[in-house]
């Protein structure tokens, strides 16, 4: 097999050392087993141990290695390195404060997630065994519960960029609908009240960047639409 | 150097399934609790569990906890402690139902109950026929569970220290645990967490092997910290090689695939498991299936141009079943094997997956170590649960779905014990020793000032290759002996690791060097314990302990029906008896027998 070399252009910023961020041009030779962008980044880190990024499961389920790859948000571990035009331009997720290199401060993102009360609310004393739910009722949660909180969606959303403190964002709203859609949850009205606000829900202008970038092929826009429908129906 | 000090009733290290489950007990009891985690909680490796969690709910086939207990004892090759196993199997329904009440999105049967599927080594009526015991959320059970537990902790207002890496355990002159040191990733600063109780829930160390299903973060941090602090490690020779890692990539393909009807085939297309396990076939326990696969490959019946893997075939299942029950597996196969399992079989190979051994505990989650005549004396203030702990319920081989059960049962149990011990006044805040942080600071200073040192990546690679070659699926006396020498050499190199990046901010080079210190402890424990155990049992099968009429499967109950204890200092080995007595007098012990499937 011929030697594969990858050219990177990587956003670098270490507040301990750099006065301001810069784009680093660097290349790395890959081994035949290096298939994903994350493999290439790990290889690069061997060459320059100061290259900083988060990573864990390397199989698209922990949500650690979200970044902006050639202008589009995605997970490094699910992106085929050979499919990317070079130089591969890597930037941190847009719209969140950068801590260092590709590592962003996700406080605001999780604050919005927490704000929708992301847990089942049911104040009835639980039965001795499981609460019952039909397969059809359970199916309503498909496409909702699989979110990995990688933030690819919210950080690709212009409404979230403008109002990260006021707009819940696609990830948080997907989670809100996950509980609204759950037949075991009894807080639908409170959940709708919580979102009835010019910003929290209604800043979604169905730009659909969230759907375009979701590495788990989820559809936050559809979930947001369903919440909006429920708001309208509740009003009449 | 002035060091920040935080004081809590209890500190939990790790926010995977076990840590989050323990945290719920503490937060809901009102104790002042800190949960330290080096990754955001939902990034913990519990998230990657796929096939299910065991509980004898009996929703689709008749079941009871006695059968589950029997399967678990037999699966452990009788090395598991029967009191802890009874405790776990009896508690299973309670903790799984609780999780459902928390909101976990289990799949459902037509009658609305939790969906259950068959899994390896789980049977009805003491080994007679497969049972549907694995409670599943498609093939994303771990993800659904970890998120449900995290969400419940949001509700309970648990206090997390996210992206803080624990460095070392603090013990006082009595040997009691009084806290931990930890580094905040964002600032690089070291702090002391002073507490009445410390619970370790730090997960496994599968990254000691070159080929592993485990996440990058699975570096045995708690196990390493315990070893450095003088706590012995139990049964570290027992590592589970999962039969179905994607060949080349190592990514896990759940046993649930075989639970749904998947079949392993060799190059001739033969369903070879029929020869090795006539009764449970592809659903025999994991050690048995992995060895059968390696035997097929070693005897030339492997698949592919290099005949180095076998095939996992689900092409006979309906696309609807695959899309409904195994959607994540389909994604993984397309991503990492480049094939769609609806159309073609998945290339798989046994891959390091789970650490059966760990920090010795009892079923209450208390860490125990020999003291005087008692080999199970609790270490005051120290608790552990989940993969980092050894209760011991998995013994020499863990059954699939028992790991998620383990972390629920023992996470809860450790939490309950801490609450009891603190509320009863048994545990109080003991003063910190004067030198509480010195050891951690010395480690950091050594790393900071190291010149002409070794390279972290190279040392780690040398360790991983050594473990892979010398302590794999099959073990050889000669290779183990050479392995001990080799791993001790690697451990020497690890003492002088050098990093180029000296930044204080989110320094991942430093983090990896500190993680390597933990991995090395685990690797030494594994190799030395394995070399010493001169029998075959469960996942530890060696060439010089073959299957004979006198000693079926090479198991030597006359000499080796005992737990290994490895001490880091001097690489000393000790042993303690296996508890063959169940917890309750009314429960009969599962008598020793030859293990066949």
Automatic annotation (TrEMBL), chain A:
Domain 4Fe-4S ferredoxin-type positions: 137-167
EC category: oxidoreductase
Domain 2Fe-2S ferredoxin-type: from-to ranges: 6-96
Alphabetized Pfam families for the sequence: Fer2_3, Fer4_17
Annotated cofactor note: Binds 1 [2Fe-2S] cluster.
Domain of life assignment: Bacteria
EC number: 1.3.5.1
Catalysed reactions listed for this entry: a quinone + succinate = fumarate + a quinol
RNA-binding found in the keyword field: no
Cofactor list: [2Fe-2S] cluster; [4Fe-4S] cluster; [3Fe-4S] cluster
Alphabetic keyword roster: 2Fe-2S, 3Fe-4S, 4Fe-4S, Electron transport, Iron, Iron-sulfur, Metal-binding, Oxidoreductase, Transport, Tricarboxylic acid cycle
InterPro entries from the UniProt entry: 2Fe-2S_ferredoxin-like_sf, 2Fe-2S_ferredoxin-type, 4Fe4S_Fe-S-bd, 4Fe4S_Fe_S_CS, Beta-grasp_dom_sf, Helical_ferredxn, SDH/FRD_Iron-Sulfur, Succ_DH/fum_Rdtase_Fe-S
Family, per entry: Belongs to the succinate dehydrogenase/fumarate reductase iron-sulfur protein family.
Matches recorded under NCBIfam families: dhsB, PRK05950.1
PANTHER family for this protein: SUCCINATE DEHYDROGENASE [UBIQUINONE] IRON-SULFUR SUBUNIT, MITOCHONDRIAL, SUCCINATE DEHYDROGENASE IRON-SULFUR PROTEIN
Listed name of the protein: Succinate dehydrogenase iron-sulfur subunit
């Amino acid at each position: 097999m011929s030697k594969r070399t990858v050219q990177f252009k990587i956003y670098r910023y270490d507040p301990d050392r750099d006065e301001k961020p810069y784009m680093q041009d660097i290349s790395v030779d890959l081994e035949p087993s290096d298939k994903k962008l994350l493999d290439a980044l790990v290889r690069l880190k061997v060459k320059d141990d100061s290259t900083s990024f988060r990573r864990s499961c390397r199989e698209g389920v922990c949500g650690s290695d979200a970044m902006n790859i050639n202008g589009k948000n995605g997970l490094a571990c699910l992106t085929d390195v050979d499919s990317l035009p070079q130089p591969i331009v890597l930037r941190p997720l847009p719209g969140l404060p950068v801590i260092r290199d590709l590592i962003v401060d996700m406080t605001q993102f999780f604050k919005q997630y927490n704000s929708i009360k992301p847990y089942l609310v049911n104040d009835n004393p639980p039965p001795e065994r499981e609460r019952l739910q039909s397969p059809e009722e359970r199916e309503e949660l498909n496409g909702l519960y699989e979110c990995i909180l990688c933030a690819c969606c919210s950080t690709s959303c212009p409404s979230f960029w403008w109002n990260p403190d006021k707009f819940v964002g696609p990830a948080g709203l997907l989670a809100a609908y996950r509980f609204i859609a759950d037949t075991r949850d009894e807080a639908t009205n409170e959940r709708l009240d919580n979102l009835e606000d010019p910003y929290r829900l209604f800043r979604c202008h169905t730009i659909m960047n969230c759907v375009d970038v979701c590495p788990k092929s989820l559809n936050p826009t559809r979930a947001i639409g369903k919440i909006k429908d429920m708001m309208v129906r509740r009003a009449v | 150097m002035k060091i920040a000090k935080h004081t809590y009733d209890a500190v939990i290290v790790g926010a995977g399934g076990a840590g989050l489950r323990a945290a719920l007990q503490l937060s809901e009891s009102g104790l002042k609790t800190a949960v330290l985690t080096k990754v955001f909680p939902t990034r913990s490796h519990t998230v990657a569990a796929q096939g299910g969690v065991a509980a004898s709910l009996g929703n689709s086939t008749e079941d009871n906890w006695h059968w589950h207990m029997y399967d678990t004892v037999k699966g452990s090759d009788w090395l598991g402690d029967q009191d802890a196993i009874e405790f776990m199997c009896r508690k299973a329904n309670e903790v799984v139902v609780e999780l459902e009440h928390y909101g976990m999105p289990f799949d459902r049967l037509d009658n609305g109950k939790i969906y259950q599927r068959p899994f390896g080594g789980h049977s009805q009526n003491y080994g007679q026929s497969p049972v549907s015991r694995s409670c599943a959320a498609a093939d994303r059970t771990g993800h659904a569970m970890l998120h449900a537990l995290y969400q419940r902790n949001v509700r309970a207002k648990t206090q997390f220290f996210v992206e803080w890496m624990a460095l070392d355990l603090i013990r006082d002159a009595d040997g009691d645990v009084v806290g931990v040191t930890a580094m905040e990733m964002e600032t690089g600063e070291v702090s002391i967490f002073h507490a009445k109780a410390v619970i370790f829930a730090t997960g496994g160390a599968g990254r000691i092997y070159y080929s592993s299903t485990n996440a990058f973060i699975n570096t045995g941090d708690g196990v390493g910290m315990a070893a450095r602090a003088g706590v012995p490690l139990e049964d570290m020779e027992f590592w589970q090689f999962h039969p179905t890692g994607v060949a080349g990539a190592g990514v896990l393909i759940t046993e649930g695939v075989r639970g749904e009807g998947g079949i392993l085939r060799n190059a001739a297309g033969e369903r070879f498991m029929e020869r090795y396990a006539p009764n449970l076939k592809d659903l025999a326990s994991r050690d048995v299936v992995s060895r059968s696969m390696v035997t097929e490959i070693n005897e030339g019946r492997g698949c592919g141009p290099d005949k180095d893997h076998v095939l996992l075939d689900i092409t006979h299942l309906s696309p609807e079943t695959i899309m409904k029950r195994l959607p994540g597996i389909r994604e993984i196969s397309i991503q990492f094997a480049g094939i769609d399992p609806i159309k073609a079989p998945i290339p798989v190979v046994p891959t390091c997956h789970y650490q059966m051994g760990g920090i010795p505990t009892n079923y209450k989650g208390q860490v125990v170590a020999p003291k005087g005549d008692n080999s199970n004396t609790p270490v005051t203030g120290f608790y552990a649960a989940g993969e980092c702990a050894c209760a011991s319920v998995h013994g020499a081989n863990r059954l699939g779905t028992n790991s998620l059960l383990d972390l629920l049962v023992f996470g809860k149990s450790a939490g309950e014990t801490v609450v009891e011990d603190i509320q009863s006044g048994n545990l109080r805040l003991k003063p910190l020793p004067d030198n509480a942080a010195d050891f951690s600071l010395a480690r950091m200073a050594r790393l900071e000032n190291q010149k002409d040192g070794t390279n972290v990546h190279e040392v780690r690679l040398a360790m991983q290759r050594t473990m892979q070659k010398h302590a794999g699926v099959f073990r050889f006396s000669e290779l183990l002996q050479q392995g001990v020498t080799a791993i001790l050499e690697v451990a020497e190199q690890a003492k002088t690791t050098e990093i180029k990046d000296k930044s204080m901010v989110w320094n991942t080079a430093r983090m990896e060097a500190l993680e390597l210190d933990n991995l090395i402890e685990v690797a030494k424990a594994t190799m030395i314990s394995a070399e010493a155990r001169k029998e075959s049992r469960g996942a530890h099968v060696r060439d010089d302990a073959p299957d004979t009429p006198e000693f079926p499967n090479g198991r030597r109950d006359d000499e080796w029906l005992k737990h290994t204890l490895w001490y880091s200092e001097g690489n000393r080995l000790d042993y303690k008896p296996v508890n063959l007595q169940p917890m309750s007098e009314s429960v009969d012990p599962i008598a020793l027998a030859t293990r066949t499937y």
